[in-house]
Amino acid sequence: MHRDLKPENILLEESGEFDKIKLIDFGESLEYTKGEKYSDMVGTPHYIAPEVLNKSYDEKCDMWSVGVITYILLSGTPPFGGRNEKQIMANVQTGKFNFNNPAWNNVSENAKDFISKLLVMDPAKRMSAKEALKHVWLKALIASDALKAKQGISDAFKNLSTFNSDSNLKKATFSFIS
After folding, report:
1. Which terminus of the chain has a lower count of CB atoms within 10 Å, N or C?
2. What distance, in Å, lies between the first and last C-alpha atoms of the chain?
3. pLDDT (average), residues 19-34
4. Does 148 reside within a domain?
5. Which residues lie below 8 Å from residue 37, measured CB to CB, with a gap of 6+?
6. Long-range contacts of residues 12-20, Cβ cutoff 8 Å, at least 24 apart
7. What single DSSP character describes residue 128?
8. What pLDDT is stored for residue 25 in this prediction?
9. What pLDDT, on a 0 to 100 scale, did the predictor assign at position 32?
């Protein structure tokens, strides 16, 4: 289990094809033992799974983070926002998110379905990594032609930088105020 999946910990190799992804920062990771539950509260507020906050989780906590990352890449906004960490974590614990933002108007129903199957409160009902790899949306992305894929990647980078800029501005503002 990585336990701190977030965009900052995902690197794309500079090959120009965006075909090599590398995960970094394994400081919070551990080898998962099937059937075991973990209780250390680790992670980053926007990406942390509700069961981690409840201190009883397994490997599916990483799948929640994948859902949050995908949501942000496609919309430029987090599914569970808030003015501070406490409010963000309270919103995560409700598990309520939506696709009402106009950014979702041009996103496929299959992409929304992918996210919806990852941001499931009950980890037992949440998609596993194996199931996610077989999801119709991911399979279609893999099979799509390179030009469309590159445009999608460009849009995702734009959304991510917008989200990160907003977050950094908020952090700087709160630091200045305090």
Report:
1. C
2. 35
3. 84
4. yes
5. 56, 57, 58
6. 18/149, 18/150, 18/153
7. P
8. 87
9. 87
Q: Do residues 112 and 104 lie in contact, with contact meaning Cβ atoms separated by under 8 Å?
A: yes
CATH of the domain at 104: 1.10.510.10
pLDDT digits (tens, 9 = 90+) for 78-114: 999 999 999 999 999 999 999 999 999 999 999 999 9
For residue range 124-170, list pLDDT tens digits in order: 999 999 999 999 998 888 777 544 545 555 565 565 555 554 554 44
Q: Which of 85, 147, 96 is nearest to 121 (CA)?
A: 96
Is the CB of residue 57 less than 8 Å from the CB of residue 37? yes
User: What range defines the domain where residue 153 resides?
Assistant: 7-177
- 116 CB neighbour count, 10 Å cutoff: 15
Q: How far apart are CA 1 and CA 33, in angstroms?
A: 10
CA-closest candidate to residue 124, choices 35, 45, 39: 35
Structure tokens at 70: 């995908």
Is residue 92 within 8 Å of 71, Cβ to Cβ?
A: no
User: SS3 breakdown of the chain: % helix, strand, coil, rounded to 5?
Assistant: 55, 5, 40
The answer to whether 25 touches 47, Cβ cutoff 8 Å, is no
pTM over 0.85: no
| Number of folded domains that form the chain | 1
Please, which residues bridge with residue 21 across strands? 12
**4 assigned to active site:** yes
DSSP designation for 21: E
The H-assigned helical ranges of 7-49 are none
